[in-house]
Amino acid sequence: MRVLGIETSCDETGVAVYDTAAGLRAHALYSQVALHAEYGGVVPELASRDHVRKLLPLIRQTLAEAGLTIDDLDGVAYTAGPGLIGALLVGAGVARALAWAREIPAIGVHHMEGHLLAPLLEDDPPQPPFVALLVSGGHTQLVAVEGIGDYRLLGESLDDAAGEAFDKTAKLMGLPYPGGPELAKLAGQGRPDVYTFARPMTDRPGLDFSFSGLKTQVLLAWQKSDRSAQTRADIARGFEEAVVDTLAIKCQRALEQTGHRTLIVAGGVGANRRLREKLDALARRRGLRVCFPRPAFCTDNGAMIAFAGALRLAAGQREAATVAVQPRWDM
Ligand code: KG4
Ligand code: ZN
């Protein structure tokens, strides 16, 4: 089964073709980062308009790279939420229209399920059961995955998501948009242990997170500092270490609690080098397996949506031909 995947939940237009027999055939991404940079954040209306401009050319490009035409497709998967409503409607509308015209099924995919399954696109994919750490700009969740589609929430952030904490902290230190990756880059030049911030909620039982207090700690440190380039890097290093440490402590706890031996990490913050190093070290120490998507599939992309949709369509799942999206949606 060849499935076209469409991702338009936020500021990236992602398209891919996944073949249940041959694997990922092609994928393409158009990032709107430059469009939103001057506003310091994603402007929803501009995002929708740009998806309208870019989606059809990107579908043509992806099909050409796969050596396929629209007639070769057996299904279409699109991100149905959570995300920006206007942006979601662009992908949903195009997917539904395409499926209607070709008389093939279309299916709406949960954006976070897409992220969660992204590590399975790599070679030697892990099989459930496993624990998934989902760390993006909108979510920080630990999920017990007993099977595909069988997800149990173990814990989540009570306030800011990890990616959001990176972005907000970057902004208050005057780093350019998009802040998360910039802050991580800067942290690479910082010295360890010059600044030490709290590891929130690690001193009590449970698997929930809270990251909003951390940015206030950074703000106070930043205001009191000499604001030199080295100090900024040292603070960034301290902040990154606190977030990464906190995530690692809770991952270890989730693995102990479930008894699962495999951890998968997905979502934009999964691209963070220190997080990957720390979780690799944890896995080595404990004889566990940890799996990450390639960095390009940590952040938003069409491949994860094509893959998640293909699994559902191949399992016989079908939906009524209505265009329904959900800006807020529990998995
Ligand atoms: O999964 P994603 O592309 O979009 C959402 O669904 O939110 O994640 C984007 C988030 C942003 O908050 C961004 O700052 C963060 O992931 N991010 C990073 C890194 N790369 C992206 N955070 C820390 N270190 C990185 N290298
Ligand atoms: Zn995402």
UniProtKB/TrEMBL annotation:
Family the UniProt entry places it in: Belongs to the KAE1 / TsaD family.
Gene from which the chain derives: tsaD
Cofactor(s) of this protein: Fe(2+)
PANTHER family given in the database record: TRNA N6-ADENOSINE THREONYLCARBAMOYLTRANSFERASE, TRNA N6-ADENOSINE THREONYLCARBAMOYLTRANSFERASE, MITOCHONDRIAL
Cofactor binding remark: Binds 1 Fe(2+) ion per subunit.
Name of the protein in question: tRNA N6-adenosine threonylcarbamoyltransferase
Position of the signal peptide: none
Matching InterPro entries: ATPase_NBD (IPR043129), Gcp-like_dom (IPR000905), KAE1/TsaD (IPR017861), TsaD (IPR022450)
